[in-house]
Every structure is written in structure tokens, then in C-alpha cells.
Design goal:
By secondary structure, the chain is α/β, with parallel strands linked by helices. It is built from 13 helices and seven strands. A five-stranded mixed sheet has the order 5-4-3-6-7. Strands 1-2 form a two-stranded antiparallel sheet. β3 and β4 form a beta hairpin. α8 packs antiparallel against α9 and α12 crosses α13. The termini are far apart.
Length: 451
């Protein structure tokens, strides 16, 4: 039976009811179609107007010729080494023009240069032989005690361990290539399994050093944090960073919820916190939370590109002015900063009274209203940055490591990387050379703190 036959069999009231139902459905479909078309016409999400990672952005192809090179800078030469290994002072024996004997003539230095070379790289192997015998007094066997630093156990010394840790976790060299590199450059044959065992045995020293760094972090009043994804085996985990001033701690965990923050903090709660607006990082500070204005400015830019000209441009100007003030806080008095903060709050009140005409502007206004108490905390506290850029810079090596190595094959490897990264980032902030920081850690010595 056809639809027309079905309709013809209906009574007049039933037809009217059906028409009314169909009209309601048509109106709903028209509204849905309009909403979908509006979304289709919105600008795409890019790294400049959203939290889309830069790796997912696409640069437009350039047109025309490349920009001409500017004025060439003045020539320069490599400076002489301040502490050369040896010196070679050469006196002229004969004149370069007439070949006369000049060996008895007083001569002065006229040209100095360095010749830099590396020595032949060979392993420094110490064969330790412990002698023993039978005691003539008690008739029991005895053996010589091993010298300090040359005890039985792993055959690999501290410098070699530090070198392997550096190549693996700083230069992101996979085990297969690392074994080949040690063989080609050092003439040292080490299997991939031995390299893995060497790193695993180092994990305790790095865990103890990280515990010291964490204790220093939790003794301050400010914490900053962020997270990025990581792959452990075939699962997505998360790399967290907690840092401030001269210390930074990394954690690699299977989740990105508040349990990670709670585990790191324990009973401690800082006065101030700086992060993006991700919920797991909010609500931990006792005095104030500074939301990242750089993230917010990207959301503002999206609202502008989507067509909001009533609210977003003014908010963008206000936020950029606040960031500009933060760049010269060291030259401003506390009373001046307080006045600036009051003016920003007054202007924000006036802007929030506006009514954006389109949905992206309305959404932005809801965000501003929700987080307004987190926008200008930095204005009256000089130690708080207005953005979360410090956390993103700290995580950048982790992202590069993830892209180069793809993933961690084991959970202990991920945990060790988090501890190593904590030591390396803290050493960078304290002005400690990387290899020295690794050696200090392997020797169970705390990283020095600048006075």
C-alpha cells in the first residue's frame, strides 16, 4: 500500500494532526540545517586561534621571490681558547723574503691561532685482580678488598653511565642506534639488553634526586603546571610538569585527572597556581589561580575570526595591555600596579555589560565571566607570570622525545624518563651543565642551589 493510499484513508482531523506534526518536523530540520551551515561557515581551528598544537597547523605556501638578505654583518673570527691544552711557540729561522738568518733577532708574536683536535677515543679499561691466599694464623682463605670505586658488579663506570643517560634521554637515541654508536665511536661493544640494565640500575639515583627537587618545590608558595600526551606500550599516558623558579618535576601517569595532582601535592597546597583552564589543574591554590592569558587570547582570536566585532576585539586589547604591563613590572611601584589592576577590572566590568550578537562571542563572554577572578592575579604579585608559557617550554623536550622515539616500551622506562627530565630541567634552570648534573645524580649528590 502506498503512502498516498494511507493518507487518503485518514479522516480530516487525522490529516490536520499529521500536517501539524510534519510542519513541526520541517521547522526543526530547517533550524538544524541553518545551525549546521553556520558551523560550516565558521573559521577553522588553528594554532593561532585555539589550543590546536603547532604540529597540526599548516603554513600557507609563500608567493614570489624570497625576501632579499639584509645588510651583511661585519666579519668575525673564532675567539682563541682561554685555556689551551698546550702551546707551540714558533720562532722564525730565516727571512721569508731574502732567506737571511734571523734566529738571533728579537721576535714578537704577530699571529696566533688554535688547532683543535680530539684525541683518539678508546675505552679506558681497568683490569682489577684481587689476590688472596691462606692465612697462616687461622688457616682460613682470605681475599684482598676491592679499591674504592672499583668494586665488583657492573663493569661500567660513572662517566660511561652518564654518557649513556645523556645520549638516550637528551638526544633521544634508540637502543639499537645507541649500541652501534658506542661501538663505532668508542670501540665499546655493549648489547641493547646491557644498555637497558644500565639505565634501570640508574633509576634509583634519579628517583632520589627527584624527591629532593619535589621537596624544594613544595616548600614554595607558587606552582605552575601543564600536561601533554605520551605513549607507554600501546596506551596513551600523560606527561605532567610541576615547576617554579629553579626547580621542575615531571610525572608520567596513565591519566590526566586530579588524582595525579593530588598524588604529587600530598597534603601541601600552594598559595598560587598558574596553568591553563583545564579542570584537573584548577582549585588547588589557597590564595589565587592565574589562568593562562595566552590560551585565552587564542580563544579571543577565534571569536574575532568568527565575526564577533562587538566584544572580542575589546577583550583582546584589554588582555594584551595587561600582558604588556607584566613585562615592565620590575620598573613599577606596588601602588602603580594596584591602580593598573583596578583600572583593568573596571574596564572588564564595562565590557562584560555588552551583548555579543553571535554565538562565538557569547561563548567567549561566558568564559570570561567564569574565569574573571583568574585573569589578573599576576598584577599584584610580581612572581606570577600572566601566561603558562614556562610550562609549555618545559614540556617541549618531552614532545620532541615522543616524536623521535614514538613511545616508551615499559612503565619503568617512562618513570625513569620523568625523573631524568626533572633533573635535566632543574639543572638548566640552576645553570648546571647537563653531564655534570647527571654525574652528581649518579653519585647521590644533590644538585647545588644558586645563592
Amino acid at each position: 500500500m502506498t503512502v498516498a493510499a494511507d493518507i487518503s484513508s485518514l479522516s480530516s482531523p487525522e490529516k490536520d494532526a499529521l500536517i501539524e506534526t510534519l510542519l513541526v518536523r520541517v521547522e526543526a530540520l530547517i533550524a538544524e540545517n541553518a545551525a549546521l551551515r553556520e558551523r560550516l561557515n565558521r573559521p577553522p581551528k588553528t594554532p593561532s586561534n585555539s589550543s590546536t598544537p603547532p604540529s597540526q597547523g599548516h603554513k600557507a605556501s609563500g608567493e614570489g621571490k624570497a625576501k632579499p638578505k639584509g645588510k651583511a654583518h661585519a666579519g668575525a673570527h673564532r675567539p682563541l681558547h682561554p685555556k689551551p691544552t698546550r702551546r707551540c711557540d714558533v720562532l722564525a729561522a730565516r727571512c721569508g723574503h731574502c732567506q737571511a738568518d734571523v734566529s738571533a733577532v728579537a721576535q714578537a708574536a704577530v699571529h696566533a691561532y688554535d688547532r683543535i683536535e680530539i684525541p683518539e677515543i678508546v675505552p679506558d679499561v681497568t683490569r682489577v685482580t684481587l689476590h688472596g691466599g691462606v692465612c697462616p694464623c687461622c688457616a682460613r682463605r682470605f681475599k684482598a678488598a676491592a679499591p674504592a670505586g672499583l668494586e665488583p658488579g657492573s663493569p661500567f663506570g660513572a662517566n660511561l653511565r652518564a654518557f649513556v643517560v645523556y645520549l638516550r634521554f637528551v638526544q633521544a637515541i634508540p637502543f639499537e642506534r645507541l649500541a652501534r654508536l658506542l661501538s663505532d665511536l668508542l670501540g665499546l661493544e655493549i648489547s641493547e639488553g646491557a644498555l637497558a640494565n644500565l639505565l634501570r640500575e640508574s633509576s634509583g639515583a634519579f628517583a632520589r634526586q627527584t624527591a629532593l627537587i619535589r621537596a624544594r618545590l613544595l616548600s614554595g608558595s607558587i606552582l605552575q603546571s601543564d600536561e601533554t600526551s605520551a605513549r607507554v606500550g600501546k596506551k596513551t599516558w600523560w606527561t605532567w610538569v610541576f615547576h617554579d623558579a629553579d626547580s621542575a618535576c615531571f610525572r608520567i601517569r596513565p591519566g590526566r585527572g586530579k588524582t595525579v595532582v593530588s598524588e604529587f601535592l600530598g597534603e601541601f597546597r600552594p598559595q598560587f597556581w598558574v596553568s591553563d583552564r583545564f579542570g584537573a589543574q584548577m582549585g588547588w591554590a589557597t590564595s589565587g589561580h592565574q589562568a593562562c592569558l595566552a590560551h585565552l587570547l587564542r580563544d579571543v582570536q577565534y571569536a574575532i575570526e568568527a565575526g564577533d566585532l562587538a566584544f572580542a576585539p575589546a577583550i583582546k586589547k584589554l588582555l594584551k595591555q595587561a600582558v604588556a604591563i607584566s613585562h615592565r613590572r620590575d620598573r613599577l611601584a606596588d601602588s602603580t600596579l594596584a591602580r593598573y589592576a583596578a583600572r583593568l577590572e573596571t574596564r572588564l566590568d564595562a565590557l562584560l555589560a555588552r551583548e555579543p550578537a553571535i554565538e562565538p562571542g557569547q561563548k567567549l563572554q561566558r568564559i570570561i565571566k567564569k574565569y574573571r577572578q583568574n585573569l589578573f592575579v599576576f598584577m599584584t604579585n610580581r612572581a606570577i607570570p600572566p601566561t603558562n608559557n614556562g610550562s609549555e617550554r618545559a614540556l617541549r623536550p618531552c614532545v620532541i622525545y615522543r616524536k623521535v622515539t614514538n613511545c616508551f616500551r615499559s612503565e619503568w622506562g617512562a618513570s625513569l624518563y620523568g625523573d631524568v627530565r626533572s633533573v635535566l630541567e632543574t639543572a638548566r634552570r640552576r645553570g648546571i651543565p647537563i653531564l655534570r648534573s647527571i654525574r652528581l645524580t649518579l653519585d647521590d649528590r644533590a644538585l647545588p642551589i644558586a645563592a
